[in-house]
Write a structure and sequence with these properties.
By secondary structure, the chain is an alpha/beta fold. It contains 19 helices and 19 strands. It has 3 domains: about 70 residues; about 120 residues, Alpha-Beta Complex (Aspartate Aminotransferase, domain 1); about 250 residues, Type I PLP-dependent aspartate aminotransferase-like (Major domain) (Aspartate Aminotransferase, domain 2), CATH 3.40.640.10. The protein is globular.
Length: about 475
């Protein structure tokens, strides 16, 4: 114990370390407050190492090296770019939809200075942030009005709060869904002040179930699109025409939460994801959908439909609490421009990844395998066929046929290799399958190949260390 105390006393004083830091190029320009903090952390770390009987350099140079390591950790941003080699297009943990070139350009243009976010340059008076994209949305999907908030959960909450607070909302039991993060339709209804009226059964709901439930206190019918699961077998839901006619006859709106709504209809493996315009054309009074899923833009909750209902939402006090920020708004405008002016299946990354042909994926996988084989004899690369998912609660049970590379190293196991790729400055996120790491090429950009190769080369060179 006395020996440990002697070592503690030998650790240089903070003032001495601060003076020594002025002579170190990596520490000389660090603000004093931050410098003192990392030096204190370094001395604490040195004491802990001594307690654990680890060999520790407690000279000024040794402590300052510890401080430099801690400073490097502080300087490393927590939120950073990740290479997605999982093949999951809308990977919620990896930020869902990557943005298009136009969307990124709009963000840069808006963030570099001031903007006309809520300023009408024509009149010189206060404007509305929603005016920048409302007309674009309406023009693309055929809606009378549109408004955008910060995500789709907020969109549903606003719609119900503005149109049904204190009154009843009818929902089929087969549509009382829960999505990621414990977002449940009954909970949102309760938060909005509306009262849930369940009709039908889990697998079957008929038009007469809705008809019997409508009363003097009914505010709306809520449909929830099952975008993240399927009920198959002995099932049924009323036809749109009958439900819309029933609601119209009783003077109430039909609200539909589309979840991961798309502007382009998508068909795959027997599943058809309807376009937002199709749902409006079917008679839905209001639809809500996400901006960062199949739409392919930034995080947002998009609301479109009949003007009388959109106007009520614009006046609701909740709108200010959940309003969209200027950078997300700029990205949405860029994405809308892609739909109206460009080729969305080429220009919008999500649409491109979902529609890329198996032949092109095979060609890309072959190119990656050729590069990987150049790493040396310790590496073994094998071309494989893969099934990918859309992700983000979209296209449930639909496998996207694709291609990739299975990779092994002679000395490094798959689990260790996966971890080493994941903890790099630019993390590479892969799948592990049958003692191999799997690189699915569906979500890889051309520039990702060089970073993947550099990462694997570094890992291979350190294998015997």
């Amino acid at each position: 114990m006395e020996d440990l105390r002697e070592k503690f006393r030998a650790i240089p004083a903070i003032d001495r370390l601060i003076a020594s830091a002025a002579e170190e190029p990596c520490l000389a320009g660090v603000p004093r407050e931050l410098l003192v903090r990392v030096i204190r952390q370094a001395t604490d770390a040195a004491r802990n190492q001594l307690r654990q009987e680890q060999e520790t350099d407690i000279s000024p140079a040794g402590i300052l090296r510890l401080a430099q390591d801690m400073l490097a950790h502080i300087e490393q941003p927590s939120l950073r770019r990740v290479i997605n080699a999982t093949g999951v297009v809308l990977h919620t943990n990896l930020g869902r939809a990557p943005l298009s070139r136009r969307a990124r350009e709009r963000i840069t243009a808006v963030m570099e200075g001031y903007s006309n976010l809520e300023y009408d340059v024509a009149s010189g008076e206060r404007g509305s942030r929603y005016a920048h994209i409302a007309d674009r949305i309406c023009g693309l999907i055929g809606a009378e009005g549109a408004i955008v908030v910060n995500n789709n959960a907020a969109a549903v909450l606003l719609v119900l709060s503005a149109l049904a607070s204190g009154r009843e909302v009818i929902v089929s039991r087969g549509e009382l869904v829960e999505i990621g993060g414990s977002f449940r339709v009954p909970d949102v209804l309760r938060q909005s002040g509306a009262r849930l009226v369940e009709v039908g059964t889990t697998n079957k709901t008929h038009l007469y179930d809705y008809e019997r439930a409508i009363g003097p206190d009914t505010a709306a019918i809520l449909k929830v699109h099952t975008s993240n699961y399927r009920i198959v077998g002995f099932t049924s839901q009323p036809e749109d025409e009958g439900l819309v006619e029933l609601a119209s006859r009783n003077g109430i709106p039909v609200i539909e939460d589309l979840g991961s709504g798309t502007l382009l209809p998508i068909e795959a493996k027997g599943w058809r994801e309807p376009a937002v315009s199709e749902r409006l054309a079917a008679g839905m009074s209001v639809v809500t959908f996400s901006g960062d899923k199949l739409f392919g833009g930034s995080q947002a909750g998009m609301i479109a439909g009949q003007k009388e209902y959109i106007d009520k939402m614009r006046k609701h006090p909740l709108l200010r609490a959940i309003r969209i920020d200027k950078l997300s708004l700029a990205a949405l405008e860029g994405t809308l421009l892609d739909y109206s002016l460009g080729n969305p299946k080429e220009d919008i990354p999500v649409q491109y990844m979902l529609h890329i042909s198996p032949e092109e994926l095979a060609e890309r996988a072959e190119g990656l395998a050729r590069e990987l084989q150049k790493l040396g004899p310790d590496w073994q690369a094998e071309l494989i066929r893969l099934n990918s998912q859309a992700g983000g609660g979209s296209l449930p049970a639909v496998d996207l046929v694709g291609h990739g590379v299975a990779l092994t190293h002679r000395e490094i196991g798959a689990s260790s290799l996966e971890r080493r790729l994941r903890i790099r400055e630019i993390p590479v996120v892969v799948r592990v399958q049958e003692a191999k790491i799997i690189l699915d090429v569906r979500c890889l950009r051309d520039s990702d190949t060089a970073d993947i190769l550099a990462a694997l080369r570094d890992i291979g060179e350190g294998a015997g260390a």
